[in-house]
Amino acid sequence: MTIIGSPRKKGNSYQAAKKLEEEMKNKGDYEFEYLFLKDAHLESCKGCFNCVSKGDEICPLKDDRKMIEEKMGEADGLILVSPVYVMTVTALMKNFIDRLAYRCHRPAYHGKKALVLSTTGGIGVKETLKYMELVVESWGYDVVAKCGQITPPWPQKEGMKKKNRDKLLKSAAEFYKSLKSVSLIKQGKSAVKFRDYMSFRIFQTVSGNVEEYMPADYKYYKNKEYYKPAKIGIPTKILTEIMLKVIFFMMRDMGPGNDKK
Length: 261
Ligand SMILES: Cc1cc2nc3c(=O)[nH]c(=O)nc-3n(C[C@H](O)[C@H](O)[C@H](O)COP(=O)(O)O)c2cc1C
Known about the structure:
This protein is of the alpha/beta class. It has helices at about 10-25, 50-55, 65-75, 90-100, 100-105, 125-140, 160-180, 180-185, 195-210, 215-220, 235-250, and strands spanning about 1-5, 35, 75-85, 115-120, 140-150. It has a 5-stranded parallel β-sheet with strand order 2-1-3-4-5, sandwiched between helices. α6 links the parallel β4 (about 115-120) and β5. Bound molecules: flavin mononucleotide.
């Protein structure tokens, strides 16, 4: 599934996404579905924090958010696309990300693959791709490629065209290869990464300490071994528990509680 955050429907970002689709289809038979945030009914986040603390079903905004999330759940992979607008993603993309804020706490897409794609007049693409990568990873995706395309407002020289094309081909190849492993992951045959298990255990431990304030996280993490059925190696488990002790010692002032007077 490709989600496009440009307010220009057939602009540079869409053109880049279409080229990527062509490259992917040259390699194998993949279905592509496009979702333009420009056309979606997504209200602006009101900042109530209900989705994060109490549950996304309490979000007061009734619009296309749930439908978009369902489509993401059906697809094996995600291509998240945004042009650089003043050093970061567009407002459309940022609002979409904010509306999914609770997914950073309670991810739903482990086992799926993602590619982040950004077009720019010349600067800010590295930072924008990094930001998109962090967000998409926090939703549970494995980000396998970051593709920046330089699209200045003047005719491109051959050298720039080649650089863009090379990056696109490389990203398409990486994404294609990764999608092939999704069926194995679905069968639970792939090992859990240390980083992902660590993140799971941090959220699980914190949620156990803040049940009163974050009941949705508490409910989500309670009695779970991992985000989804998976094999977790004994060394991963042992190392994680040691690291947790260190992390929570360092973060000891951050938890809830009243200091003694
Ligand atoms: C409001 C606005 C802000 C932009 N900010 C930047 C920027 O910070 N850095 C940059 O290199 N290009 C910037 N650009 C150029 C776009 O990133 C570039 O043209 C991009 O390819 C547009 O993609 P689109 O046609 O899909 O909308 C900006 C363009 C607009 C309209």
